[in-house]
């Protein structure tokens, strides 16, 4: 019998608890429903002008190098309208019913055909029957059925597409490309040119921005799940961080908890910057060895079933804020709390930012870091809010209303060499939370991770297998 467990043995004994399954079904069953996507297509069609067709392309598979491709990521508008996560597909939504390949309706989806040889290497392709069964769509065809004469645009006044311009073929698909999406895009291009139909990409873009800016209940559930997963990762870093770790080790702790809790991917490249790197807004190298007295700014969040959170916490590597760090941190916290108070239905979406600016301007002036209001952008160079959802920078309504989800993320960044007392150098602080506008005010979806100095320092003292 071992009297004392080595750290390695202790960790190995802990692994079963780390990987205990939390999923009840064989595969996840909480994806958006076919009814949700059908409702979004109906909403788009309702807002389309008369005698128009909306054309939406799936993303392409992109080559990384040699025979290795990048991880496939679906076009978010296409996903919003279909739920389908396969490439080589195209959706057409007509304002009025038309007949395409013998079927009459307003919605037509072209997908990639089944290919047993390819599926042995990369997994099942749904094909027509699979898409019809899973997504409850009636008018589904394979993309090889799409020809120049497959659709009749003679009665269409305008073609609406989010990925169409005069150079669409060369920009997105490569003129003369041999892949199915390129061929369909070129056929669409020819059909539009041949019928001299005006393109109204701005119209369909505005329709989708309007719809996506206000989340449906099913979307809010997924964003809240992504936020909850994200806060668990941030809390694990608060507990596990210590002097002598690297930024990428903090990233590893964070992303382990994302994956452990069912997140398919990070919502965006993880930002884990320490010391002077806290002052680089989108720092992604994450290579530095962290030292005693450093701050660590972690802007990291999970994506869950296509929806992303966006959470930032700034913490002391040694578990204790220095006096100067605490002053700057609490100024940012005060700015965020002031911004929260303006998160109300009916307010302009830039009101939270204005509140944060007032607090930080007053605070930095009092500290002698700035002398005039015009200097503020030197240390607070970004906005306070952006929409959140399928994209980490999702559409945001001009006027806040129930169902809007957005970030509140004030920050102060004082890099070395700044024109202020050296005691402030290398202090970069951002605090970011995900806010849902409700009928009665707002809900902080990422409130599960501490924000105050006292709460962070308390959590830093808790046990962690990573220490």
C-alpha-based Rg, rounded:
25 Å
Average pLDDT across residues? 90
Q: What ranges have pLDDT less than 50 throughout 5 or more consecutive residues?
A: 1-17, 164-175
Please identify the top-level CATH class of the largest domain.
Alpha Beta
How far do the termini sit from each other? 25 Å
Can you give a write-up of this model?
The chain is built from 14 helices and 18 strands. α9 (217-240) crosses α10 and α11 runs antiparallel to α12. The protein is of the alpha+beta class. A hairpin with a 2-residue loop joins β4 (90-100) and β5 (103-111). The chain has helices spanning 7-18, 34-47, 76-82, 116-122, 127-135, 168-173, 180-195, 201-213, 217-240, 247-260, 323-340, 351-367, 376-379, 453-460, and strands at residues 52-57, 63-65, 68-69, 90-100, 103-111, 140-142, 158-161, 265-266, 271-274, 295-299, 302-304, 307-308, 312-316, 405-408, 411-414, 427-430, 433-438, 441-444. A five-stranded mixed β-sheet has the order 6-5-4-1-7, with helices on both faces. Mean pLDDT is 90; it is low at 1-17 and 164-175. The two termini are 25 Å apart. The protein folds into two domains: 34-211, 3-Layer(aba) Sandwich (Creatine Amidinohydrolase, Chain A, domain 1); 215-460, Creatine Amidinohydrolase.
């Amino acid at each position: 019998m071992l009297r004392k467990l080595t750290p390695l043995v202790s960790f190995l004994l802990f692994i079963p608890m780390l990987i205990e399954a939390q999923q009840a079904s064989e595969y996840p069953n909480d994806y958006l429903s076919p009814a949700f996507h059908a409702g979004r297509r109906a909403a788009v069609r309702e807002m389309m002008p008369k005698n128009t067709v909306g054309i939406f392309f799936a993303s392409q598979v992109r080559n990384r190098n040699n025979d290795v491709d990048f991880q496939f990521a679906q076009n978010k508008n296409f996903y919003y309208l279909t739920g389908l996560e396969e490439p080589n597909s195209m959706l057409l939504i007509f304002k009025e019913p038309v007949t395409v390949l013998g079927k009459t309706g307003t919605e037509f989806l072209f997908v990639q055909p089944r290919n047993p040889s390819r599926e042995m290497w990369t997994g099942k392709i749904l094909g027509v029957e699979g898409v019809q069964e899973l997504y409850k769509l009636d008018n589904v065809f394979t993309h090889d059925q799409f020809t120049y004469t497959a659709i009749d645009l003679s009665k269409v006044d305008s073609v609406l597409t989010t990925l169409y311009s005069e150079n669409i073929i060369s920009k997105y698909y490569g003129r003369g490309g041999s892949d199915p999406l390129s061929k369909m895009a070129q056929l669409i291009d020819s059909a539009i040119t041949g019928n001299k139909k005006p393109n109204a990409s701005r119209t369909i873009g505005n329709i989708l921005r309007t719809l996506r800016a206000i989340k449906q209940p099913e979307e809010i559930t997924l964003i809240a799940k992504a936020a909850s997963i994200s806060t668990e990762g941030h809390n694990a870093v608060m507990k596990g961080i210590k002097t002598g770790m690297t930024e990428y080790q903090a990233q590893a702790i964070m992303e382990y908890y994302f994956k452990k809790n069912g997140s398919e991917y990070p919502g965006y490249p993880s930002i884990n910057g320490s010391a002077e790197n806290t002052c680089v807004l989108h720092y992604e190298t994450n290579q530095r060895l962290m030292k005693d007295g450093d701050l660590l700014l972690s802007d990291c969040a999970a994506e869950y079933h296509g929806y992303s959170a966006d959470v930032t916490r700034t913490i002391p590597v040694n578990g204790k804020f220095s006096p100067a760090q605490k002053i700057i941190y609490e100024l940012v916290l005060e700015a965020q709390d002031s911004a929260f108070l303006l998160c109300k239905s009916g307010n302009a979406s830039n009101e939270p930012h204005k509140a944060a600016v007032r607090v930080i301007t007053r605070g930095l002036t009092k500290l002698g870091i700035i002398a005039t209001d015009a200097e503020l952008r030197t240390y607070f160079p970004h906005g306070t809010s952006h929409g959140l959802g399928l994209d980490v920078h999702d559409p945001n309504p001009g006027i806040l209303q129930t169902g809007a989800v957005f970030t509140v993320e004030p920050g102060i960044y004082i890099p070395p060499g700044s024109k202020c007392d050296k005691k402030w150098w290398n202090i970069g602080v951002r605090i970011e939370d995900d806010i849902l506008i409700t009928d009665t005010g707002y809900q902080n979806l990422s409130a599960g991770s501490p924000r105050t100095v006292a709460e962070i320092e308390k959590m830093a003292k808790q046990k962690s297998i990573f220490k």
